[in-house]
Amino acid sequence: MRVLVTGGSGSLGSEVLAELGARGHEARPASRRTGVDLSTGVGLAEVVAGVDAVIHCATATQSPRRVDVDGTGRLVAELARQPSPPHLVYVSIVGCDRSPFPYYRAKTEVEQRLARWGGPATVVRATQFHPFAAAVAQLLMVGRVAFSIGDMAVQPADTAWVAGHLVDVATGPVPRGFTRTTDLAGPDVLAMGEVAMMLRQHAGQGSPRVVRVPPVGGVLRSFSDRVNVPSGDVETGGRSFAAWLETQPQRLPSLRR
Ligand SMILES: NC(=O)c1ccc[n+]([C@@H]2O[C@H](COP(=O)([O-])OP(=O)(O)OC[C@H]3O[C@@H](n4cnc5c(N)ncnc54)[C@H](OP(=O)(O)O)[C@@H]3O)[C@@H](O)[C@H]2O)c1
């Protein structure tokens, strides 16, 4: 199959490209690096022509309205112009509809837009990927103090495992209209203090001192309520956070600028 991968240069997109290649499919990456800009529509018509499916991984956490919401609108308009609209597979986030976090609101809006489209579209929600969970835990650490915002936790997933699922969906049966799969998550639920402990041990440091701070405001309250941890039907699998961490350098990249 010929599969378009938006955000093919990103963490998830690059794993999707590798998986498609390993399974013998023709993968077509699309992002600004390949001359396709979802925020303007430049290059979209050319890259969409003739594809059988789209795995939509492009995102911009700092400008989700321009890229995720309006950009998906541009992508869908282009797909609708094709003689037979290809199956669009969209990766979203577990619990995005249960938090006022602006990025999550944008993800929810994209899901709703796809539901209204009427063409073949599948939403696959996943939990935080291992590198992101590690980066958030690092952000919440100052020296050996690890701050835990209320009961915040993660159930992080292996990026390659999620990529494999997206490829299964994109190369499988095409739905008649909109559908959503079972949510995807990694095998373990970890409180942020536990993540901090694992990171410090990995770095050869002593145990952190976990300081619990109350969640202030709707966004932090929603994460303290663990909206990002699946509560209903969920498919778990892939490498655990501990197994992923073993493959990482002692000093992990940080989200702190
Ligand atoms: N990271 C997580 O923990 C996690 C968990 C669950 C779900 N997800 C979802 O998975 C998807 C991929 O996330 P990720 O972590 O792989 O993101 P990422 O590493 O930040 O990659 C984002 C991609 O989007 C592309 N992009 C940005 N602006 C663009 C634009 N204007 N036009 C076209 N492409 C653009 C970037 O490439 P260029 O710079 O070349 O444009 C890059 O390839 C997102 O939808 C995210 O919400 C992520």
TrEMBL record:
Q: Name one GO molecular function term.
A: protein-containing complex binding
According to the lineage, what is the superkingdom?
Answer: Bacteria
Pfam families assigned:
Epimerase
Report the Gene3D superfamilies cross-referenced here: NAD(P)-binding Rossmann-like Domain
What name does UniProt use for this protein?
Uncharacterized conserved protein YbjT, contains NAD(P)-binding and DUF2867 domains
The organism encoding this protein is Pedococcus cremeus
- InterPro entries in UniProt: ComplexI_NDUFA9_subunit, Epimerase_deHydtase, NAD(P)-bd_dom_sf
> Where would I find the NAD-dependent epimerase/dehydratase domain in this sequence?
3-65
